[in-house]
Amino acid sequence: MAKSPEQEHPVKAFGWAARDSCGHLSPFNFSRRATGDKDVSFKVLYCGICHSDLHCIKNEWRDSVYPMVPGHEIVGVVTEVGPEVTKFKVGDKVGVGCLVGSCHSCESCVNDLENYCPEWILTYNSKYTDGTITYGGYSDIMVADEHFVVAIPDNLPLDGAAPLLCAGITVYSPLRHYGLGKPGLHVGVVGLGGLGHMAVKFAKAMGVKVTVISTSPSKREEAVGLLGADSFLVSRDQEQMEAAKGTMDGIIDTVSAVHSLLPLIALLKSQGKLVLVGAPEKPLELPAFPLLTGRKVVGGSATGGLKETQEMINFASQHSITSDIEVISMDYVNTAMERLAKADVRYRFVIDIGNSLKSTA
Fold first, then answer.
1. Mean per-residue pLDDT for 207-227?
2. Predicted confidence band at 7 (pLDDT cuts at 50, 70, 90)?
3. Is the pLDDT of residue 361 over 90?
4. Does 95 map to a domain?
5. Which candidate, 329, 334, 335, places its Cα nearest to that of 356?
6. What per-residue confidence (pLDDT) applies to 279?
7. Is residue 296 scored above 70 in pLDDT?
8. Quick count: other Cβ atoms within 10 Å of Cβ 220?
């Protein structure tokens, strides 16, 4: 296969990569394709650290390709656009989330659900149609087809907006799709981490009554006092869980560790919906009888399509929603990964790529 002009003249790039499943990240020189006709190139300023990054660098999902440059919560400023680009110009604030490609022709793509395309191309640890490996946002520059780039409104700070591109859309999409974002409904949020705290913020902005469900009593003040949740349940407290049975219209379950679903199903009203957005390594046990007797639903959701992602960003802009973050330098990333594994972050690490990557080159 003949190389395209973009492949013939690649652009030098620099980032940090994992070389094997030990997960240690270190400086890495590589190439990006040159800006194509429909491409947007931008200088990366910030990149969030998603729990998926930790899973992938350690090959916990058994599909990792090395060397791997992680990162799919990427924001920056446009430096170049291709001649056929219509939505962006040099100087615009933009972002790229979990996807950089799809087939554009399947039923999912036609319905603006590129995130469910069977030929989706992930932002890292995936392959472009030409067979080259995708590299993520722990790097100085990014090149992507304009269809997979979103505009970041000026009133959103780029560091706090970066996690919206994965954590934000991952909880916004199920709230919308499953009809749980309607004023007056009662929604539970399981887990108060990177995803969970965003679920609280979006649900509250939609007018929903929110109860945070956590194994940690110490998170009550964070949930209610800082994030504005209406109530808090300690999932290990049987009296609290018993009193809350049958009170919730839906639950967004953000936990990525193996846990029991039965107590959560019991919290749902008849015809309630339990939506999983976390990705545990091992299968969860799903009891059938509680679903049958209450006509309850257990569903899932994975990120969102590009149209919905832009909608989410615009909603966040209108309601001044950003992630609560801890900004770190690039050379702190391995320590950050160790802390993330222990859930020692409130609530999202964001790498200051623009100010710290060069100093380690």
1. 97
2. low
3. no
4. yes
5. 329
6. 86
7. yes
8. 17
- Does 217 share its domain with 127? no
The reported pLDDT for the residue numbered 280 is 85
Query: Can you tell me the distance from the alpha carbon of 317 to that of 310, in angstroms, rounded to the nearest whole number?
Result: 10
The yes-or-no verdict on residue 1 having pLDDT over 50 is: no
pLDDT of residue 9: 80
pLDDT band at 329 (very low <50, low <70, confident <90, very high): very high
Nearest CA-CA partner of 40 in 13, 4, 76, 2: 76
Per-residue pLDDT averaged across 245-252, rounded?
A: 98
The predicted model gives 309-314 an average pLDDT of 98
Task: Clarify whether residues 343 and 278 are in a common domain.
Answer: no
Return the pLDDT at 198. 98
Contact 188, 211 (CB under 8 A): yes
Counted domains in the chain: 2
Q: How far apart are CA 72 and CA 303, in angstroms?
A: 11
For 225-257, b where at least 16 C-beta lie within 10 A, e where not — what string?
eebebbbbbbbeeeeebeebeebbbbbbbbbbe
State residue 257 phi and psi, 5-degree precision: -105, 160
Q: Are residues 126 and 260 in the same domain?
A: no
Dist. CA 169–CA 252, nearest whole Å: 13
